[in-house]
């Protein structure tokens, strides 16, 4: 039955049991409601960033992400008496590097050993980040589709202002859409590894070409400023977002001026987008919508850079700095 293998028993030692669950991202902990302290095994201490095996509860609470702290404290307190299985998720730390933890156990007497309430912490950071990436991708796709309709309306309006016949209108509009498609294909091919680095000047030219008629656009980007392979789509998205907003509210909506500059410096790539708009009663975007959040996500998280955006009565100034990699 066993192929000649001799069974040696199924007893676990503490060392191999602990090693097995730690490799699965599971840490053991217990806490005393009366003493308000927690006992943490070595993996839990790593989760929380503490060195002591026994830690004051309030020290741990202070390390919980501010947005999760209130709900987490309530769930933690409920685990003392509620005689049911529980599972609650929270982050330790702030920002993009925060660690996601799931606390799991059984409340009430079933989860007690003496005065200690025992349970586990499970590291679910990878799953949470995957879920976040999926949500962002879905929202980004919806936003890009909306942007493409906005671009289509803007280009149609631009072409219609100077069209002298239906045939010329159709020809001009088709040409502009063709150039916009070329820019999208350029970014997609680079993202898929079909080409190497792409000149930021060429990328900006491709994306802004459909708006040139009737607008004063100047692109002055040094040859050394390039979008590296794998990041071209990020830069294309940034330029598309800025151009779309400009076509709705700014210089590219008609009669304005736009200057895009780029150069390398000691701290990385510097790109500025400056608009001066024609007088208009159209309200300006306030920079708090999904497009602005997408810019922040792309520049700060994907590219590791920073940016500033300022709007006044004369127009907009957008400046980003991307460190060299």
TrEMBL record:
Pfam families, sorted: HWE_HK
PANTHER family: ETHYLENE RESPONSE SENSOR PROTEIN, TWO-COMPONENT SYSTEM SENSOR PROTEIN
Gene source species: Methylobacterium radiotolerans (strain ATCC 27329 / DSM 1819 / JCM 2831 / NBRC 15690 / NCIMB 10815 / 0-1)
InterPro entries recorded: HATPase_C_sf (IPR036890), Sig_transdc_His_kinase_HWE (IPR011102)
Domain of life, per lineage: Bacteria
Signal peptide extent: none
Name this protein carries in UniProt: histidine kinase
Key words, A-Z: ATP-binding, Kinase, Nucleotide-binding, Phosphoprotein, Transferase
Signal transduction histidine kinase HWE region domain sequence ranges: 140-223
């Amino acid at each position: 039955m066993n192929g000649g293998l001799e069974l040696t028993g199924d007893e676990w030692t503490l060392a191999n049991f602990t090693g097995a669950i730690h490799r699965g991202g599971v840490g053991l902990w217990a806490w005393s409601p009366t003493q308000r302290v927690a006992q943490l095994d070595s993996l839990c201490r790593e989760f929380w960033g503490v060195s002591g095996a026994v830690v004051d509860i309030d020290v741990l609470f202070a390390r919980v992400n501010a947005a999760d702290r209130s709900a987490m404290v309530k769930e933690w307190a409920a685990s003392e008496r509620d005689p049911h299985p529980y599972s609650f998720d929270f982050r330790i730390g702030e920002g993009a590097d925060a660690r996601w933890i799931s606390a799991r156990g059984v409340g009430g007497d079933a989860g007690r050993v003496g005065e200690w309430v025992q349970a586990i912490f499970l590291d679910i950071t990878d799953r949470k980040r995957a879920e976040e990436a999926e949500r962002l991708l879905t929202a980004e796709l919806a936003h890009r589709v909306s942007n493409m309709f906005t671009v289509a309306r803007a280009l149609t309006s631009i072409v219609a202002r100077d069209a002298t016949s239906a045939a010329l209108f159709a020809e001009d509009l088709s040409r502009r859409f063709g150039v916009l498609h070329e820019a999208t294909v350029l970014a997609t091919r680079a993202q898929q590894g079909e080409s190497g680095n792409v000149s930021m000047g060429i990328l900006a030219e491709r994306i802004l070409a459909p708006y040139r008629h009737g607008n004063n656009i100047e692109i002055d980007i040094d040859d050394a400023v390039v979008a590296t392979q794998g990041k071209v789509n990020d830069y294309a998205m940034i330029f598309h977002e800025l151009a779309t907003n400009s076509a709705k509210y700014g210089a590219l909506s008609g009669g304005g001026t736009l200057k895009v500059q780029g150069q390398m410096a000691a701290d990385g790539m510097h790109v500025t987008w400056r608009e001066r708009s024609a007088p208009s009663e159209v309200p300006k975007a306030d920079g708090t919508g999904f497009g602005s959040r997408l810019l922040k996500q792309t520049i700060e998280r994907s590219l590791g850079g920073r940016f500033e955006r300022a709007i006044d009565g004369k127009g907009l100034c957008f400046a980003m700095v991307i460190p060299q990699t």
